[in-house]
Amino acid sequence: MNEIEKIFSKLDPEDAANQTAVALRQLLPLLGEEGRTRFIMNLLGETGQDKISSMVHL
Description:
Layout: H1 3-9, H2 13-27, H3 33-44, H4 48-56
């Protein structure tokens, strides 16, 4: 378990989600478009492409 996982395991889920949002607001602007896309695809998992495709059609 890495350090971030250890920290999150000690927080309640809502607080962990809020802290993640704060960190992502700082991190995502530092990534290029390809890095952000790769991150989102990893976050969504194997079905990510289907979810991204349906979001594009909104």
